[in-house]
Structures are given as C-alpha cells and as structure tokens.
Amino acid sequence: MEFTIRAATLEDCKDISRMILELAEYEKVSDQVKIAQRDLEQDGFSKNPFFHGIIAEVPEHLKSKEGHSKVGYSLYFYTYSSWKGRAVYMEDLYVMPEFRGKGIGKALMSKVSQLGLAAGCTQLNFTVLDWNKSSLDFYLKQGCWDVTSDLGYHCMRCEGDALEHLAQGGL
Amino acid sequence: MANFNLRKAEPKDVPDILRLIKELAKYEEMEDQVILTEKDLLEDGFGDHPFYHCVVADVLAEHQKVEGYSVIGFAMYYFTYDPWIGKLLYLEDFYVMKEYRGFGIGSEILKTLSDTAVTNRCSSMHFIVAESNKASIDFYKRRGASDLSLQEGWRLFRIDKENLLKMSAEE
C-alpha cells in the first residue's frame, strides 16, 4: 500500500485528536480522554513542545470510508535514563483498523527510532497493556523486551488529591 | 537533625549527581548498568534544551555525617505528555544517602517535586519502582501512589540501541 510518513504539523491536530479517541476506544478507556484539539495545538506546537508527532498519510484514492487520508500517527518525546542518558519515549502508536497489516505501524515506529537515534538516544521506551496480545506480539517481533516482566519494574502514578496532598507536605 | 537545604542543581553539582546515581543503582543491584558520564550529565542537563531537571539536598559542613560530601540527596525529573490528560512530571531518580534517611529529607524532596508538578499544571507524577523494592513501594503507597502495572495491566517495554538501529534502517 502507498503511504507517506512525515512530521506532524499544527493542521494535523484535528486528525490526531480523532485518532487519539479511536485508540482510547480500542483500549476501552475513551471516557478518560480530557485533552482536546486545542490542547494538542498548544502543547505540541508552541516554543517548548511537550511532545512531537508523526503522521502516516495515504493518497486521495486510498482514503478511508469516511474520507480520512491521515490514517496513523505516533506521539513521542525525549526522556532521560540516569543509567544510559538520552532516551525517546513513544507515547502513542496507532493505525486505523482498515489500514493495518500493511507495514504502516512498523514504518511509524521506524521513524521514531530514526529520530531518536539522530537525537543521541540509546533506547526507546513505551508501555503496552498486558491483554493487548496482538500489540505485544508485534513489539516482541521488533526486538523489544518487557522490562516489567524481566526486571520487575512497575509503572506508578501519583495524581489528583494524592498529588495535591503531597505538594502541601502531607503524609 | 542536620539542617539541610533543597535547591535547583547547578553544573558544579554534576560529580555529586553522578555519585548519587551510582549509589542508587547499587541499592537497586544495577550498578554495572550505569554508563552515563559527568560530561553527558553536563551537556544534557545544563545546555539550551535540557533533557532533565535536578534538585539536590545539601547539608552545612558542620552537619556532615560522611566526610567530604555536602550533597546528600537528589531527584532527577522531566516533563512528559499523556495525550488523554496532558502534561505529566516523570520522576526518574529519587535518592537520599543512607546516613541521612529518617529525617524528612525524602519527604521534603517529594513535596518540592509535587509542588513543581502542580505549578506546571501537570495532572500527575509518574515513576517506576522495582517490585522487589518493598520499602520504596510502601513509601509511595502511603503517599497515595497507585501501581498502574498491577491495577491497569501496563507493562513497560524497551528497545535497545542495537535493535533501534535495525528498526530505523527498515524501509
């Protein structure tokens, strides 16, 4: 299938927002999405962006049933490992269902790898849900390994009231 | 108790930051994994686009319990992004030297970080902990942290440089 992979622009935020919701629905948690197109524009395309995006686009004649030509995306940002230094974190990777199995996901991930390496990163990190077997298989085939399984690292979060409480010095 | 001071790290703190990174890695039985150098830390933390931020805890000379060291604790963090909820603060490393534990220094560091998170309109603070590190898990849970790996099934995946290079070369 013909497709191109390119850096996301401000104009892509409408489609990125659409696909974020589609991915959240796929992960069965769409009620948790609080970020709108406007937030993405501000947080990703101002002077100090909090993330970067890449888009997979197909030509006119291959558009989706609803008329979308932007059919996949990845959001990533740079992080830091106190052991190894610069790293890249792939926050989202998504391809619309009807465009899967054509190498688009792999191409998006390849682009993130290229950009990460160019920025001096030595590792790419991301999280996957344990029930998402098709994604787990895809990633393991690309040479990824499960840090949670192998090293026992758990992802932790402190949010909302707990975060406010902590900020006020409470125990 | 020793009076301590929490402040933003400066370039001159880099040797101490690396020392403490190695001490924390040793505590996690991962000392041989640290390949980061002082040069990396200086370039990556104090250039035009820092990959990380650091706060350090130091004590006055007359309160030093360990000869020669005034910087006795630190936290390394950076900002990340969740396309569902926006900006997050990611806590990469957090450590207080053994001789200085139990005096509230760790709690004070966490308070400062939480405050930073709230001030920067981050909805959450994320970090990872090894499941074998019961003392730290209890410390965090007492402060309202939740274990996303257990509760929601998130697994942290990684792809290292060798496979990153292979992936980035694929067309």
TrEMBL record, chain A:
PANTHER family: DIAMINE N-ACETYLTRANSFERASE (PTHR10545), DIAMINE N-ACETYLTRANSFERASE 2-RELATED (PTHR10545:SF66). GO terms for biological process: polyamine metabolic process. This is Spermidine/spermine N1-acetyltransferase family member 2a. It holds the Pfam family Acetyltransf_1. Belongs to the acetyltransferase family. Keywords: Acyltransferase, Transferase. GO terms for molecular function: N-acetyltransferase activity. SUPFAM superfamilies: Acyl-CoA N-acyltransferases (Nat). PROSITE patterns: GNAT. InterPro entries: Acyl_CoA_acyltransferase (IPR016181), Diverse_Substrate_AcTransf (IPR051016), GNAT_dom (IPR000182). Residues 3-171 form the N-acetyltransferase domain. It comes from Cyprinus carpio (Common carp).
Automatic annotation (TrEMBL), chain B:
It catalyses: spermidine + acetyl-CoA = N(1)-acetylspermidine + CoA + H(+); an alkane-alpha,omega-diamine + acetyl-CoA = an N-acetylalkane-alpha,omega-diamine + CoA + H(+); spermine + acetyl-CoA = N(1)-acetylspermine + CoA + H(+). It holds the Pfam family Acetyltransf_1. Pathway: Amine and polyamine degradation; putrescine degradation; N-acetylputrescine from putrescine: step 1/1. Keywords: Acyltransferase, Cytoplasm, Transferase. One of its GO terms (biological process) is putrescine catabolic process. One of its GO terms (molecular function) is spermidine binding. Its main location: cytoplasm. Residues 4-170 form the N-acetyltransferase domain. SUPFAM superfamilies: Acyl-CoA N-acyltransferases (Nat) (SSF55729). The keyword Acyltransferase applies. It is found in: Cytoplasm. One of its GO terms (cellular component) is cytoplasm. Its EC number is 2.3.1.57. Belongs to the acetyltransferase family. Homodimer. This is Diamine acetyltransferase 1. It comes from Cyprinus carpio. The lineage of its organism: Eukaryota, Metazoa, Chordata, Craniata, Vertebrata.
